Amino acid sequence: MAGKSNKGRNRRGAHNTMTASESAVTSDALVNDNSSALESSKADANGVATADESNNAILELTESETENSASQQKQGDLHLYPVSVKTQSGEKLELQLNPGDSVMDIRQFLLDAPETCYITCYDLLLHTKDGSTHHLEDYNEISEVADITTGGSSLEIVPALYDDRSIRAHVHRTRELLSLSTLHASLSTSLAFQYETSQSKSSSSGDTAKTEVPELDGLGFMDDVAGSLSNLLFSSSKEIKCMDGIVFSSFNPAPSYRRLVGDLIYLDVVTLEGNKYCITGTTKMFYVNSSTGNTLDPRLSKTTFEATTLVGLLQKISPKFKKAFREILERRASAHPFENVQSLLPPNSWLGLYPVPDHKRDAARAEDALTLSYGSELIGMQRDWNEELQSCREFPHTTPQERILRDRALYKVTSDFVDAAISGAIGVISRCIPPINPTDPECFHMYVHNNIFFSFAVDGDLEQLSKKPASNANSNIESLSPVNGSSDKASSSLLHGDGGIANGEKCGGSTTKEQDSVVDVTSDVSAETQLTESEQATYASANNDLKGTKAYQEADVSGLYNLAMAIIDYRGHRVVAQSVLPGILQGDKSDSLLYGSVDNGKKICWNEDFHSKVLEAAKRLHLKEHAVHDGSGNVFKLAAPVECKGIVGSDDRHYLLDLMRVTPRDANYTGPGSRFCILRPELITAFCQAQAAERSKCKSEGDASLSSDSLKAPGVDEQDLTKEGRDEDASSPAQTESSEEILFNPNVFTEFKLSGSQKEISADEENVRKVSLYLKDVVLPKFIQDLCTLEVSPMDGQTLTEALHAHGINVRYIGKVADGTKHLPHLWDLCSNEIVVRSAKHILKDVLRNTEDHDFGPAISHFFNCFFGNYQAVGAKVIANVVHSRTHKKDQGAHQSLGKPSRGQGKWKSGSSARRNQSSYMNVSSETLWSDIQEFAKLKYQFELPEDARSRVKKISVIRNLCQKVGVTIAARKYDLDSAAPFQTSDILSLQPVVKHSVPICSEAKDLVETGKIQLAEGMLSEAYTLFSEAFSILQQVTGPMHREVANCCRYLAMVLYHAGDMAGAIMQQHKELIINERCLGLDHPDTAHSYGNMALFYHGLNQTELALRHMSRALLLLSLSSGPDHPDVAATFINVAMMYQDIGKMNTALRYLQEALKKNERLLGEEHIQTAVCYHALAIAFNCMGAFKLSHQHEKKTYDILVKQLGKEDSRTRDSQNWMKTFKMRELQMNAQKQKGQALNAASAQKAIDILKAHPDLIHAFQAAASGGSGSSGTSGSKSLNAAIIGETLPRGRGVDERAARAAAEVRKKAQARGLLIRPHGVPVQALPPLTQLLNIINSGMTPDAVETVETEGLKKEANGHPSNGAADSKNDQLTSGQEDQAPAGLVAGLPSSDAKKQKAKAKVSA
């Protein structure tokens, strides 16, 4: 039923977007009540926001436009009609339905509505206006049954009969409702709630005085990051107890004579009053029977004790239950709707509560755990994943609505598949599921469970590390070669083929490591190498296969199918899960291979029909049709890698498997062991676009007639490019050059024999070399430069990886990135820490693979102690290097225990291995571990870790990173990381699977967001709002609210509203983004930190500075966990905090934060970096507010000097700075003049500044020290993008927004001044100013310094927000930023959540 659950609800969500600019998915069916509450609260919020008519006008305009465009372009059926619902108990509620809603959707609405959430088994009757009654079937759409558009329709819920399955589901649902564990409250929500309550208290007590804003301990915990671990997890709200217990009674199953009269189950319940009851569940109802003691007495005990639902019955027998249940429903209703939604694949948390909560008895939990174990699922319950997936893919997708339905079905099936794959993989690794080929060597065991096929992949990198010392390739070859004697090659090979991780001979795709050396080695060895190396999938081949599968899914060629796939890492093993290819498990299907090769190119199959489909996909993937020889010299035309396999399943669909090399080999890596070093698809796309742009430039110069056509290329995405290139036959190199399209031959630089003229082959090789050089010589240096200018600002390993990938750079180049950023400590740390963590991950997984179940805790804590502490190995004979010692043993024992080294390097051990293993994890000492890490880093990343690497790692961020990569959860307590052994076994709380999957994304929404970003950059707010809202509504329908992309939309919507001056609206969208990020990315993901930062800025814009500072404090905590205290984003956040304190007049605190930010920036970026200038400018403004104009002038002078050096005198920002200097000078002169006139108006504030400086002599030193110039750095691109980064506006914005936002802001300001309110509109700091004339006017008009400050900081902040003036540098930055948009969160706003619906509801209540 959940299959279609979100559709209608989200459509209703979309409708709300239109009606009240809130796209909160109201999960209650009571839209009426809700929306009115929301509207009142919105008005209230707007009151606070002092938003004036002009802003509202913008918004109204936006909303009406959204409404129109959405209804025209997309869902033409967005009209909702009220339909009343009559429940079993006679209550009435109203739903807003649309004729396209399916009955499933209605059921989902009812499941969310508090009045009906506990009713699970019922039929729906639809009564129409004309008096006819229709019975609704689950899969009908309402429009198929009756016309509800005429009005007057009503629904009736009629109890249906229970059966065994539905009554159990009912009990399960009831238990679920009684627990609040599914409610994921966000800290932001509770902060807002506390703030509301404290405000309402102070207002009710008549105390209108300004509440004192507490000071943050922000600076304190930056030094003690380890101590702040415990602050990350806030325990969610207290559980509300309704019952002492509801368990299946030991009277079950019902005796046969009772079955015949309808008894299905018996439950034992204990109420809070302490009474025990035995309840009978029959096909019609639940009632309390008369059993006491050990004998069943089925009679009804009291006539009143019966009800059609379990909740109904419990409410009758226990008053306390009734009260508590009402509280639970209220708590759920008061939460933000997004906090109630289940997130599909929640992230693993690396920290667990400390002290560890007590484990309480819970019979229901025990029952679930025991009944859902492996193998006991009902056979009928198994899903045919492959059939579901492929039939969803065949859905029609011509109209937008059809595409949404298809995307949603695909998303749902794939997510469910990943879920099932995870539990299956855990079963496989913990040996609950038997293999289907138990007689084969263990490394080739395969498993089928729940219609999912599982096989193992091995860690090729680690094997290479162990091989190096052995350096005798033959010993390895011998160790595996006997395996090829597998009995029934053909059938087993196909079977494995299905696994994609092919085994037997057929495993072409998975060939590993030495394969490339084949090229240079003598032929006989190469044959042998091929045989052995092809036996087992490696980590790299599995990853590439997943990437390839994704690529073909996105190419979406009709008639060509792929299997669903997921990779699960757990307890050191990597398991590859795939949907089962139809017919593969039934007998010999060796004739079904139609395309590609199962034996590494010896025999190649080919089929015209199949080839045409593959060719179609190849064009979309930039692959070239080319000719290859098979083993006996025949020539075949392929358009895919040789080792892929095209198979016709028993369902007659064409499947393409083993897509290990969908992009060409990386020509920069051709040594042994780099067989799977392929280029990333992002790089191929970027390269093709760059080439197309270049060519169109040449063409347009050369001949005007063609230009209109070719100029399309640069902005076009792959799909369009391919359409242009499709007509030409791009096989001959000459034509390839001239056609629009660049196509790559995926089989160059491999061991396969290419056919065709030498010229053509070398042209193909040249093409691949070109793109590899483009990566090395263009993309990498550009990326490094972006990092240095903070254009791209990753915070931790995960965001660094995402940024690399988004630029098309493989992580194996991370060593080069580290070398390129040596002069910036925070970047060098980030890269080298990531290399250390990745190397340690391989070694830790190896330790875990060789660890018995009862030793996991001790093994992990021992490993952590060696890694972070200083641990000497135990035992007299310390083996120099664990990995090496293990290798020698493997080689000696290879003949007796055949497959042991491979399958995840040996899982089930014989006696001898058990003995070895006892010491294996204890053998690791700090020395051996670090020497292994250094060696691994050199081997895999060509990176020399410095000698003092151990002392230089940022311990907390590295622990966090390693835990996330391996799935470890540790206790959130304060660790003494300087001791020899900081961890104990009891600190390791759990080990969870880590998953990679190919859950599809919705391309349509992505395109809308991209277009919206461009509109926003050009300042077209209402157009951008329309596009983002539309993307939001599509994504809501496809993925439901819990998805990263939805968060992205919320973030941009918040930005648009912020620029339009609607703070309350911005906060609502931002709050949504925050909740989604917390749930989908993790509590301490950098995006979540940026969400808190943005929330703070928006609250500050509403003058709720106390609330803003609490959010800032949280943002700082999260940043310190993910990046450590040394990161420019932390400094940027400090500047924002300082601005907030400055606004509420706490100058001392503000100066402390600014000074800290200045120190950080000088240390991290150098004294001549633009960001350092930003700090000086902020200090100048602060001193200006205090009336210390002389100091202001000195600091502004430093700003000016840096800007001149980095940007030149002509740059607008440099000129702005010059104007500021003049202003400060004039102020100083004016003040002196005033003094002489005897009006020492500002003397007091100047004195205040001097007092502060006296009190903090370190401030003076810092300023003096800063005055002398310094190292300088490559701050070529301007401060605009930087400030954008600080503030987290990753948005590239051009001039347009600036003016519009400025106009809106000016209006707000006028109104505010009229009311005597002091507003700071764009809530962020730093960098430039309104034109000088404006300032002079202000000064001359004799406003109070207070008012002046408002205006200034205003302009200054705006510039900070990254709209500076035009000029070459800016336009360049604009392009950069937009390119980098989605990859990694740069700056403070990159990943946003959502705040208000919850808060709004709370507000509505408070005001009520």
Automatic annotation (TrEMBL):
List, in alphabetical order, the Gene Ontology terms for molecular function in this entry: RNA binding
Q: Supply the Pfam families for this chain.
A: CLU (PF13236), CLU_N (PF15044), eIF3_p135 (PF12807), GSKIP_dom (PF05303), TPR_12 (PF13424)
Q: Where are the TPR repeats?
A: 1131-1164
What InterPro entries does UniProt report for this protein, alphabetically?
CLU-central, CLU_dom, CLU_N, CLU_prot, GSKIP_dom, GSKIP_dom_sf, TPR-like_helical_dom_sf, TPR_rpt
GO cellular component terms, A-Z: cytoplasm
- Where does it live in the cell? Cytoplasm
Q: Is Cytoplasm set as a keyword in this record?
A: yes
Compositionally biased residues, Basic residues: 1-14
Where are the stretches annotated Disordered?
A: 1-51, 467-495, 701-738, 889-920, 1356-1408
Q: Where is the composition biased (Basic and acidic residues)?
A: 720-729
Task: Report keywords, A-Z.
Answer: Cytoplasm, RNA-binding, TPR repeat
Q: Does the keyword Lyase apply?
A: no
State where it is primarily located. cytoplasm
The Clu domain extends over 357-670
Query: Family per UniProt?
Result: Belongs to the CLU family.
This molecule's function is given as:
mRNA-binding protein involved in proper cytoplasmic distribution of mitochondria.
**HAMAP family in alphabetical order:** CLU
Q: What is this protein called?
A: Clustered mitochondria protein homolog
